[in-house]
Automatic annotation (TrEMBL):
InterPro entries: MEKK4_N. It comes from the Eukaryota. Transmembrane segments: none annotated. Residues 145-167 are annotated as: Disordered. GO terms for biological process: MAPK cascade. It comes from Lygus hesperus (Western plant bug). Residues 1-135 form the Mitogen-activated protein kinase kinase kinase N-terminal domain. It holds the Pfam family MEKK4_N. This is Mitogen-activated protein kinase kinase kinase N-terminal domain-containing protein. Residues 149-167 have a biased composition (Polar residues).
Length: 182
């Protein structure tokens, strides 16, 4: 009985995957507030905005990051459900024999595109988080050195990270909020 009921939901799931298109629905709370999310970041900022972003897709935009997180959640949910229904069959070949859509080129292409996008997004976010941590560590080391040493002529040629606790650090802070995504 369970098997019949579970398998009856498969055509809708396959259709949902085949016709998936991310539609960003703004949340009821149009104001997003970011505060001290992590004590190890070394960045303490509070950022509030009354108007959500219209879709600039700048990597550090909190609203665009939230949209990307919604898409990641939706794709993960669809692929997890597909994994569950695949377990209802002895093999993927048997699954494909019962549901022709599952083995169609269009469906396989769409599913592969979802997996690739999901994996690339996760990988890029991890790389940027690591880079952000390295930049913060470099800035802190440079600030510690400048407090104890006198400025040498070569220091003026280096990047200036002295203002990391103000507006330029906001991207690192917004990244920290969104990269600990499960």
């Amino acid at each position: 009985m369970y098997l019949i009921e579970a398998r009856s939901k498969i055509p809708q799931l396959l259709d949902d995957i085949l016709n998936y298109k991310f539609m960003n629905k703004s949340s009821d709370d149009s104001s997003m507030t970011y505060s001290n999310q992590s004590s190890d970041s070394g960045i303490n900022l509070t950022c509030t905005s009354d108007q959500p972003c219209s879709g600039c897709y700048w990597f550090f935009c909190p609203f665009c990051l939230e949209s990307a997180n919604k898409a990641i959640d939706q794709i993960k949910s669809l692929t997890d459900k597909l994994d569950e229904v695949e377990e209802l069959f002895p093999s993927t070949k048997a699954f494909g024999n019962q549901f022709a859509v599952y083995k169609s080129n269009e469906f396989v292409g769409k599913l592969n595109a979802m997996f690739i996008w999901y994996n690339i997004m996760r990988h890029l976010r991890l790389k940027i988080l690591i880079l952000g941590k390295q930049l913060v560590a470099y800035a802190q080391e440079k600030a510690d050195r400048s407090d104890t040493d006198s400025s040498s002529p070569g220091d003026s040629q280096e990047w200036d990270f002295s203002n990391l606790s103000t507006k330029p650090a906001q991207p690192l802070h917004s990244l920290r909020r969104y990269f600990y995504h499960s």
